[in-house]
Amino acid sequence: MNWGVVGHGHLGSALAARFVRQNIAFQHLSAQLWDQGKNLPQPEDALLLAIPDGFIEAAAHQLQQRGHVGPVFHCSGATPLSALEPLPQAGVWYPMQSFRDVEVPWGTFPVYWENALLEPILQDLHEKLGIPPGQWMTSERRATHHLSAVWANNFPTHLVALYQDFCRQKGVEPMTTMFLDSVSQALQEDARALQTGPARRRDLATLARHLEALPPELRSIYQALSDSIARLDSSNS
Fold first, then answer.
1. Residue 114 needs a FRET pair 20 to 30 A away by CA distance; which of 40, 215, 216, 237 works?
2. In angstroms, rounded to a whole number, what is the distance separating the alpha carbons of residues 116 and 93?
3. What structural domains does the chain harbor?
4. pTM score
């Protein structure tokens, strides 16, 4: 079976690099050119759609209009399988990993499959890629895992980025050891019970001083987080 990797973002590039490393014949395609009749896969090719979620349905319709009959898998965590409904062979191949570079530790993170009718194709793909088989999961459950991954990855990374910006603006050395210790301990124990600080104490004077000292773009975030700390503490009382 001939494979096509559709998309040149982080995931598409990492997949292409893995296909090359494993000596798997494939095409690296761009769905952006399909409406011009260019860079199209063969109708029988198996495709991995490593494209933004908002373009999956449109890509499925373009493939359907051009008579694509081969299996097509989207690689989204949040998008249901039904986004590929126009296609005769549709499935999901979702690697739950943050792709920042073409080199990733394949085999150390889960890959979620959907549509058991295509199991032989997925099993063959994983054998070629040199990674363990995936796990079956419904669209609804996969979306929950994806949301959990956003909480685990994107939000903490964003908070660290804001913290680094704040330290640079104020000329403060980042408290890296405190940051690492706080996160590590919170994950190992009951994070609610470990919470300290002015928000939990309802120290309104300190909160007001902090808000005044913060750059304007950080005030709403500080206020929202402080309010959330107070609410969580109240619900646990």
1. 40
2. 12
3. 3-138 (3.40.50.720), 142-235 (1.10.1040.20)
4. 0.89
